[in-house]
Amino acid sequence: MSDRITVEELSELMKKAAGITVSPQELADRPDTGFEELGIDSLGLLGIVGELENRHGLPMPPDAERCKTPRKFLDLVNSTLLAGA
Amino acid sequence: MSAPRQRRAAVTGIGVVAPNGTSTETFWKATQEGVSVLDRVTREGCEHLPLKVAGEVRSFDPAAAVEERLLVQTDRFTHFAMAAADAALEDARLGRSDTEGAPYEAGVVTAAGSGGGEFGQRELQKLWGQGRRYVGPWQSIAWFYAASTGQISIRRGFKGPCSVVAADEAGGVDALAHAARAVRRGTDVIVAGATEAPLAPYSMVCQLGYPELSAVTDPGRAYRPFTEGACGFVPAEGGAMLVVEEAGAARERGVPVRATVAGHAATFTGASRWELSRQGLAEAIRGALAEAGCAPEEVDVVFADALGVPEADRAEAQAIADALGAHGRRVPVTAPKTGTGRAYCAAPVLDTAAAVLAMEHGLIPPTPNVADICHDLDLVTGGARAARVRTALVLSRGLMGSNSALVLRHGGVDE
Known about the structure:
The complex is a heterodimer.
Chain A: H1 7-18, H2 24-29, H3 35-38, H4 42-56, H5 70-84
Chain B: E1 9-17, H1 24-33, E2 39-40, E3 53-54, H2 62-65, H3 68-71, H4 76-91, H5 96-99, E4 106-111, H6 117-129, H7 139-142, H8 147-156, E5 162-165, H9 171-185, E6 189-196, H10 201-207, E7 238-246, H11 247-252, E8 259-268, H12 274-292, E9 301-303, H13 310-324, H14 327-330, E10 332-334, H15 346-361, E11 363-364, E12 378-379, E13 385-386, E14 391-397, E15 402-410
Parallel strand pairs in B: 4-5, 4-6, 9-10, 9-14, 10-12
Antiparallel strand pairs in B: 1-7, 1-8, 2-3, 6-7, 8-15, 11-13, 14-15
Helix pairs in contact in B: 4-8, 12-13
């Protein structure tokens, strides 16, 4: 598994953990659209974080589940994965 | 100054997701025709269990009824509840625009006995199989009794009185009464009822210890209350939601009052103490009639609890006679649930829906699979019976000892 989370993986996780369908292209084009606007609430994001932690065997920082947008979320988890690698 | 007009709780919408129909129309057609849909259990993971016959909801597509965002965070019993609530609100012609202007005037009351067993099992298997980190966050809400009330209220933006009645199977009746009280106290609209999904492996194992559960494997003989062949009950899934609103407000909206919730009472006589339920049920009937200002002779039909355990059937027949006197031997009694199974808390709500439809159609639905009654009751069997039904009495008992009675009046019995 790649040690960088792509928009593809985030899109897949959003569907699996929160039942929200947003294409990778959409996430790439509009990374500053808020999770709230996309329909993902705090429990939804918590589920996404938990799934990532299990996949990568690394704890994510508490701030991960407080990120407001996909861009901020990807920046934070990818810097964490980079540091942990 | 004249006294303010007394507020009355009217049923203006019905939404059904039942083993014999996933719309009110199909449910009523199957119910009045006396169709039995009891069948061998087919749910995955249940094949090896000793419970062989149930009433499964087979023609329900959750993805067609509920947004995917909510599907992932809810159990099947909540899928049923959301779909039934939508149908009931549509039936009552209450769209989002009708309630969003006054969100505190709309609420939700549900009852549940089984909770979200399928969802809970999946997450608990992750807990013990993979570890606590693999349990998803939705487990924190999905499997609890309160899930359906919460999800319906959030989804529809209802901020008025919302509650969950956890009171055994008879809690389904109590939830409707609770909704009626909220409406009489001043809330405009309450969506009320119960749905259950107890046919997943974990939930089924939880039921295996009930001595009242039928072990008969022939679907046509597994649930035959009030007969010599009574051998327990068959469980079911599904349920119904009703829209309960103030009768005057319904008329002002131009929506027909289909029935009024006129009286209710509940008693408790202890788990599996069926002989004592005679007294408890009779007392509940008397209380419900008193609240409704209804004489025993006015009752046109009784929807029986019909547990199918000889001792319990006898107690129910005696309770009807005790509370209704000589009329108890003449009044038509029916138990359409013998064709669908008992969906725990949802069973009396489905009976209430059927009672409203019976009043509207002037037709008392029959008791499928049942013939040769061994109690002094006029049980409607074979086909539906045409009758002028102005007042219906719905009875429910729970395995844990609750007994409830609900009196419904026809929509036209008004001023």
